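To whoever is on call:

I kicked off a structure prediction for a single chain this morning and the downstream step that reads the tokens threw a length-mismatch warning. I double-checked the sequence; it's 117 residues and nothing unusual in it as far as I can see. Pasting both halves so you can look.
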Amino acid sequence: QVQLVESGGGLVRAGGSLRLSCAASGSISSIKSMGWYRQAPEKQRELAAKIIKGGPTNYADSVKGRFTISGDNAKNTLYLQMDSLKPEDTAVYYCYLDFGYYGGSYWGQGIQVTVSS
């Protein structure tokens, strides 16, 4: 029942920044948690960042201090600010929204981030 549209990916040089957006078709005010996953070529999908509604954020050690996850209820949008990007960050990034037992969970379509040296 919820559609997610990701944007903001692209090509950037090492040390640069990008901001990913994940816009939901409906309100995210009732969300339980949301996050960003990424999958590099020939690797398993991994959690990069997660935020619990009204609670803490969690980051993979590899991105801690460089990535910031946030949400904007007014715009029904999840963001991932990525700074000091490294070639190792190159991957397809997927947003994930969890509305709990009754609301279900949803994945974005994935968006490519490529970091060149």
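Update from on-call: the warning came from a stale cache, not from the record. Cleared it. Sanity check on the structure: The chain has one helix and eleven strands.
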